[in-house]
Design brief:
single chain, about 200 residues, alpha/beta, 7-stranded mixed sheet, about 30% helix
Length: about 200
């Protein structure tokens, strides 16, 4: 095969759609829609948008309620194809179907301190293997909703969800998953889970 020695092009940001997962129930925040909660002067999702926009060309917001409010941020809003708040994999599925890029990068809506080089570091760990899922690791634990996912795995995800499973780590384990080491900056994965955290950080900020 004359093509075997050609090094594949590295992934560039035009091949990636960021999907901000704002589709949960916000149970630990008293049922509030987390992405719309005020934090240090702006809504949580605005912090994420501001950090991710320079890193990718395409952004989707995955929301299962308050879609009109999310539309005001100026990006396409997609609602889970699976009903009844079925978790982040449902958001992945919907984003993979809706995007016209080769990859999605998943992000939570309640992580305001996203690193400026998140996407670059995830891309780096693909090592030009187009089917790798790259998941951030903070040095102690996996950060499963900070991940670069090839849209080529859509059929795998559909089969997994059709089987009734919803566990994100189990789907990752069925595929070629590698870790991106963020142990040098674990604080970037801080997220707002409780009203007390939000108030404390608003007071500090």
């Amino acid at each position: 095969n004359p093509f075997t020695n050609i090094t594949p092009m590295t992934i560039n940001k035009s091949q990636i759609t960021a999907v901000i997962l704002a589709g949960g129930k916000g149970r630990r925040l008293g049922g509030q829609d987390k992405g719309l909660v005020e934090y240090q002067g702006k809504r949580l999702i605005q912090h994420v948008l501001d950090k991710i926009k320079p890193q990718v060309n395409n952004v989707l917001i995955n929301a299962n309620r308050n879609q009109d409010t999310y539309n005001e941020f100026g990006y396409p809003v997609i609602t889970d194809d699976l009903h009844d708040f079925q978790g982040p994999l449902a958001g992945f599925l919907t984003a993979m179907r809706a995007s016209n890029t080769d990859y999605i990068v998943a992000l939570p809506c309640d992580g305001p301190d996203l690193p400026d080089d998140l996407v670059a570091r995830l891309i780096d760990e693909t090592k030009n293997d187009k089917d790798r899922i790259v998941v951030a690791h903070d040095g102690e634990r996996l950060q499963p909703v900070h991940a670069l996912i090839p849209v080529s795995l859509l059929a795998s995800l559909e089969d997994f969800l059709e089987s009734g499973d919803r566990k994100i780590d189990r789907w990752y384990a069925k595929n070629n998953m590698v870790l991106a080491d963020f142990s040098d900056k674990p604080e970037v994965f801080f997220n707002i889970n409780t009203e007390e955290q939000r108030q404390a950080d608003n007071d500090n900020g």
